[in-house]
Amino acid sequence: QVQLVESGGGLVQAGGSLRLSCAASGITFNIHAMGWYRQAPGKQRELVAAITSGGITNVVDSVKGRFTISRGNAKNTVNLQMNSLKPEDSAVYYCSVQRLPWRSVDYWGLGTQVTVSS
Length: 118
What we know:
mainly beta, seven-stranded mixed β-sheet, 11 strands, four-stranded antiparallel β-sheet, 118 residues
């Protein structure tokens, strides 16, 4: 059974930093990409950043230059370093696993809350 466990969310003032981590367990297949999505109240879930098994990253424009996605030292882990946080970054952040490049996300974590105060 695949499980994704996120950590590192919390409350931070605008301009501050947080680091999110995600560890996937129960993986018995090759992963195409791991990523982070977020969902703010009343809004749709949106991609924040993703990284493929080959190290190719995709970061949305709204966080480019402030957020960095990287693979963790352990297998099937991914981190999201978030700097210069803004109140509009407040959301529940979800870790994701995508098995194949032509498919959508296959597995989701339960999410971790990030709140940025002004």
